[in-house]
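To the wet lab folks,

You asked to see what we're planning to order before we commit. Fair enough. Below is the target structure as tokens, and below that is the sequence we designed to fit it. If anything looks off to you, flag it before the synthesis order goes out.
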């Protein structure tokens, strides 16, 4: 009994010394993030940890897959989507904390080819994308649900060329998977984000889609409804800090101010 009392006293002393907030601060932060954020978010999370923050466990996938996992009860603290629709999906189901939601980043949509390709195109209404494929496939993230694919389809429809290439699309689960199709020369062309193209030296940008051809590319972030981890609050705040801004801009993202503009 004396040992038990001594142990109990030690536990109480530790709780008083460190406090519940500091104990929680040591918890890992579980982040669900769009695949296109991989390089930049990995670097930002490492800097956060080096500066005394908690370790971030980050799962990267397509935004719809991550949103559905959260809906099914997956234990995430932070959700970073590659479009507003999937954040809206979770907010409408009361699965994120609305007060923590912010538009964090922007991006550009580009056409890529293998690095040694001689293709270069001015992307404009009616441009002959089908001829540029030369019978090959057009790599795109899933055009029905994945943000990069939806942006790409919207752009091609606005430009009046979707019907000419629809049957040639090679669908991928994520935008990074679409990038790999081109990087591995399995497709002569692909539609990805500018940041994805910058992350792979085996591809190059051969055309940039005008911003008025698709909805604005916005990456919102928010705490999930079930998260009570103070470290998650600190990480989310850090992602909007000047230190994180330098990382995101280096990777090619546009950093958005709280009002949503650049």
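Sequence we intend to order:
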């Amino acid at each position: 009994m004396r040992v038990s009392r001594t142990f109990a006293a030690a536990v109480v002393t530790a709780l008083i010394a460190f406090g519940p907030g500091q104990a929680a601060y040591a918890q890992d932060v579980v982040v669900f993030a769009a695949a296109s954020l991989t390089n930049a978010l990995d670097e930002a999370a490492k800097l956060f940890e080096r500066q005394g923050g908690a370790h971030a466990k980050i799962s990267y996938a397509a935004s719809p897959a991550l949103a559905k996992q959260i809906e099914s009860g997956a234990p995430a603290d932070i959700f970073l989507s590659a479009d507003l629709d999937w954040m809206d999906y979770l907010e409408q189901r009361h699965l994120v904390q609305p007060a923590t939601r912010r538009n964090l980043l922007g991006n550009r949509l580009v056409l890529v080819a293998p690095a040694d390709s001689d293709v270069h195109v001015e992307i404009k209404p009616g441009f002959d994308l089908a001829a540029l494929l030369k019978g090959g496939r057009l790599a795109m993230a899933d055009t029905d649900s994945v943000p990069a694919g939806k942006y790409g389809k919207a752009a091609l429809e606005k430009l009046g060329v979707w019907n000419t290439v629809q049957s040639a699309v090679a669908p991928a689960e994520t935008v990074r998977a679409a990038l790999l199709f081109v990087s591995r020369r399995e497709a002569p062309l692909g539609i990805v984000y500018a940041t994805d193209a910058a992350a792979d030296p085996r591809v190059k940008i051969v055309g940039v889609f005008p911003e008025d051809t698709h909805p604005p590319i916005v990456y919102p972030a928010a705490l999930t409804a079930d998260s009570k981890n103070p470290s998650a609050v600190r990480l989310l705040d850090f992602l909007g800090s000047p230190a994180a801004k330098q990382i995101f801009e280096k990777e090619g993202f546009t950093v958005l101010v709280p009002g949503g503009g650049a």
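Structural context that might help your review: The chain has two domains: 25-106+218-255, 109-213. Residues 2-25 form the longest helix (24 residues).

Thanks,
Computational group
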